[in-house]
Amino acid sequence: MAKKKKKKANVESGPSDHLKYYCIVFGVLVVVIAVVLVMQRNTLADYKQANKQARTALKATGQTADGRPRGIGELAVEVEKFVQGYRASSGGGAAGGEAGDGISNVKMSAAETKVNMERTWAGAEGDDPNRGKGFRTKYREFKYANCSLEQFTTLIRNVESWGRYRVYEMRWNLADPKQNSKPPFNIISKPSIKVGFRTPLARDR
Question: How many domains does the chain have?
Fold first, then answer.
């Protein structure tokens, strides 16, 4: 009788051992899942931070204290202008514009005549070297008599299409109602543009 009871006790102890092993495995899985979850949360935080920085860089405008653009878009424009200015200056005007060192008065006059605009004033040519970026900007301002907005925008588009020159600034006001009394009501007053181009600075040796 004693042997039978002992055998029965051994049989009954089996399931408890399986339960113990199950609890151990389950506990290990919980720890692994917790570690993975923490790692994923850290990765997600890194992704969110990188995404935030990217959005800031894409939306940023203006320049830093040393004159460098803050945003990616503005940086791309700066690089494009620099490359075009370099190609134009080093290749004798192959990229457009004139081969000389200044802004061509003849070329500007031809563009103004093409759109039937009357120049009223032309400023002296300015020279703005930027050693931090490695280029210099030469520019000149032109003012015109009253004209239509279409004439003005066409002039700007033509100047930009030359490749070397860029319109850095443009100003205009809507003309007096007495001068704008007929459709399409697009007469503007005091239009002016600042035209310029960039060339690389010689490096110090």
Answer: 1
* SS3 state at 180: coil
What CATH code is carried by the domain that includes residue 89? 3.30.70.60
Segments forming the whole domain that contains residue 118: 72-200
- How many other C-beta atoms are found inside a 10 Å radius of the C-beta of residue 166? 21
**Does residue 1 fall inside a structural domain?**
no
Residue 105 has φ and ψ, to the nearest 5°, of: -70, -35
For the whole model, what pTM was predicted?
0.54
CB burial of 63-81 (b: ≥16 within 10 Å; e: otherwise) equals eeeeeebebeeeeeebeeb
Which tens digit of pLDDT belongs to each residue from 34-85? 888 888 777 777 777 777 777 776 666 666 665 666 667 777 777 776 676 6
